Amino acid sequence: MVDTGSELKVLISRRRIAAVVKRLAEEIRGDYTGLNPLVVGILKGSFVFLADLVRAVNMPLQVDFVKLTSYGDSTQSSGRITVLLDLNCQLAGRHVLVVEDIVDSGLTTAFLCDYLRQKGPASVKLCAFTSKPSRRKVDIRIDYLGLEVPDKFLVGYGLDCAERYRYLPDLCELKEK
Ligand code: 5GP
Ligand code: MG
Fold it and tell me: What is the C-alpha separation between 114 and 80, in angstroms, rounded?
């Protein structure tokens, strides 16, 4: 890898990721069959996980995205959240499944679930690929959780550091040299 300032260590391999996605998809299919859920991905980090997840779920559903303020180029959450790109569809009566790459402080997902609940959906649930429980600042229920991960800065499988590394097929720890 051409990268002088940092080092990557595979934390969760693509093989393990595939097994986790399959398990989550089976749970989701069991709960949402016949409900035509609206799957809402939080851009940008969730796009790889969401793409894998909806194909593994493989049943009628719709997909939309929101973009919220995020870390920017630093590794710390600002705690202030705003909607940069909103949904393009009506939520009244819909079963909404929010898909997130990683729940850290919980502020992003807590904000989004509250925001969506105000739009009159039939239900709002959360699916997160990973969670860092030791970092939580607000209590948030994760209905479908892939894996708990340690308090490390992770990249790959959609996650970036200043827009780098999203393409990596494995979830990696980024270590500064
Ligand atoms: P929150 O602290 O609100 O739960 O998470 C804020 C955002 O930071 C999330 O959307 C998540 O994608 C991102 N984030 C949290 N931990 C990490 C991490 O270890 N690596 C990267 N690249 N993003 C993270
Ligand atoms: Mg994110």
Answer: 15
The CA distances from residue 158 to 23, 97, 161, 170, in Å, are 19, 19, 10, 9
Residue 172 beta carbon below 6 angstroms from any ligand 1 atom: no
Of 104, 143, 151, 160, which residue is the catalytic one?
104
What does the alpha-carbon distance between residue 97 and residue 78 come to, in Å, rounded to a whole number?
25
pTM: 0.93
Say how far apart CA 63 and CA 76 lie, in whole Å.
29
Q: Identify the residue whose tokens are 């969506």.
A: 116
71 Cα to the center of ligand 2, angstroms: 8
| Domain extent listing, the chain | 7-166
Domain 7-166 part of CATH 1.10.1760.20:
no
Ligand 1 atom closest to the CA of 132, numbered from 1: 16
Query: Is 104 a residue of the active site?
Result: yes
Q: Residue 80's pLDDT band (boundaries 50, 70, 90)? A: confident
pLDDT in tens, 130-167: 999 999 999 999 999 999 999 999 999 999 999 999 99
Handedness of CA 15, 27, 29, 95 (dihedral sign): negative
